[in-house]
């Protein structure tokens, strides 16, 4: 995140603020436990085995238990997380000769001085990332034009984001930076409306480990399936999702993805695991809604399995047509 911030300062390119946001909500926020007393050393995207509770009075070498550990033999990570959280207000905005740029969205009171020595003050109110509305109210402004810039996250691509000016005029804005230049007056309010809704994500096909799977994001948040939300005896490796239907908002910040839950695999099954394509018996499965939770919140309910990249119901059932080798 620190590298992304410095690249943003050096270039002004919003893609670096996008990267900082993704890192903040899905890496830094994932590391500490909800009570702030334990930490992940590494953030895995797939946990196949339920972990064990790390001892509270021992140092964990790498926290390989599947749960956050209270401390590590190498202790730089928890202290760096604490430092980053303490510095978060500094990452929200910048100012230059033209005006003020908002890079990250949170409730805030911001004040700065422009190049000519005149002061600007803003009040930001939002429930982002739960909601997509960011309201910016001008508290103090010089009696001359200046530019307010707001980042429109890259994840809004394919949907519609809106910028509403103090006169109530609405215009669509594309991913990147939305700029509004005018004479602002105290009390003016500008609103950015971002399309925060669950959406399917696919990976680059060159990544072999997750080819043929999909993930779910909502706004800047990555979601995952956790065994704590499945019926007893079931595991995340037995579920499949249906990307032909849209995931929907669920209760308490969850997302419900359409899919099916297969029969749990027998850990003692020694049958040959490979079959001719199209001849293998399809595992029995029941259609259901798969509950997904924000990735940053996983492993707060005890030992569990988890996965971010989810297999789909659209598995091949017939062999591909034969090909003829090319001769030279």
Automatic annotation (TrEMBL):
Residues 317-328 have a biased composition (Pro residues). It comes from Streptomyces afghaniensis 772. InterPro entries: Beta-AFase-like, Beta-AFase-like_GH127_C, Beta-AFase-like_GH127_cat, Beta-AFase-like_GH127_middle. It comes from the Bacteria. Residues 198-311 form the Non-reducing end beta-L-arabinofuranosidase-like GH127 C-terminal domain. Residues 100-195 form the Non-reducing end beta-L-arabinofuranosidase-like GH127 middle domain. This is Non-reducing end beta-L-arabinofuranosidase. Residues 1-89 form the Non-reducing end beta-L-arabinofuranosidase-like GH127 catalytic domain.
